[in-house]
Amino acid sequence: MSERVKSDIREVDLSDAVEHIQKGEHLLKYTQRKLVHPHPRFFHVDTELGVIRWKSPRKCSSISQLSLLDVYRIIPGKDSDFWKHRGGGLYGIDIVGLPRNLQIECPNLESWRCWFAGLVYAHQYALASMHHIQITTGYVRHHWELLDLDQDNLCSINMRFDILIIFTTKNS
Fold this sequence. Notes:
Helices cover 44% and strands 24% of the residues. The chain is an alpha+beta fold. A hairpin with a 4-residue loop joins strand 2 and strand 3. Helix 2 crosses helix 4. The chain starts with a helix and ends with a helix. It comes from Gregarina niphandrodes. This is Phospholipase C-like protein.
């Protein structure tokens, strides 16, 4: 993240920003096609599931979403190629993901600061949570492989309790 962007969002309270993106707001959603006008959509972030969601009126009662684990860059509008080619983007955010990109524009600077800081935080939180799950899974797998299995390649109930005790004492 550039120093200019860091200075733009330095004064944002992260708890307020996360609360703001969880409550949601109407933002403009852009498409890759230049001739198509932006569409207002209600966006919100579900931090527990790690997804950005928005309601599309054309899709019958379904909510479109983008997982934060699929996102690999969150770019402010001033630095994004999409916004440079389209023009404007002063309050834009380009969310670059694996299955799709999402270009949104906030109504004002304060909203942009909350959305940008909140999205960056939620993205880092989702990645950290996934990393914790991978470490925990690896730990359990390691202890499972260390067990002495019987002739049928099965684990006794006592061994299962032992591994459960090891796992719970490590995480508490």
